[in-house]
């Protein structure tokens, strides 16, 4: 199967999850979705990541984003591990794992999403099988893949960055703008190159022209 690219439709699937069976596209509905794989249950980096995702639930809800985890473990392990995650998270703030985790023991969905890196010899479970790598997919309500990132097993993800990209994508879908390096919500954005100078005067009356191809503007968003 060719690898999934930005702009591809996220493959649909049915799965068992800690919140019951789902049909992925139906589960996404009119929301955005973050599908993120982790190498395995009862592993340290993953535990910190899932606690963080649980703790950030209001940040995802505010952006109309549903979050779903996946690893090649069974439901029983997921359920037991979720308790550990909550215990760990509680050291920092009350933590409830409120999002589903897909049980992908047969690696069908991990294979469909190219989440198994056969090349990475550091990324093997104790049976020598590849772990699901730390992949993140951001999927929009049309079920289009808008972001995909793969991290090494040794490095926990930065969910501030993933949320930052969701903000950028959502703003870019609504207004004719792009976002500059290290941008954060509330900061000035870039007028999209497709906006003519004439249009920019009306659309972004407070914009500044730094170079003919680099125009920035404040943007008030709700
Ligand atoms: C971890 O989540 O801690 C981890 C998982 C697989 C390999 C290395 C680290």
TrEMBL record:
Q: Provide the alphabetized UniProt keywords.
A: Antioxidant, Oxidoreductase, Peroxidase, Redox-active center
Q: Which PROSITE patterns match?
A: THIOREDOXIN_2 (PS51352)
Gene Ontology terms, MF aspect? peroxiredoxin activity
One Gene Ontology biological process = cell redox homeostasis
Q: Which residues form the active site?
A: 46 (cysteine sulfenic acid (-soh) intermediate)
User: One GO cellular component from the entry?
Assistant: cytosol
Quick check: keyword Oxidoreductase in the entry?
A: yes
Q: Where is the Thioredoxin domain?
A: 4-171
- KW Oxidoreductase (keyword) present: yes
Briefly state the protein's biological role: Thiol-specific peroxidase that catalyzes the reduction of hydrogen peroxide and organic hydroperoxides to water and alcohols, respectively.
Identify its protein family.
Answer: Belongs to the peroxiredoxin family. Prx6 subfamily.
Q: What is this protein called?
A: Thioredoxin domain-containing protein
Q: Which organism's genome codes for this protein? A: Hermanssonia centrifuga
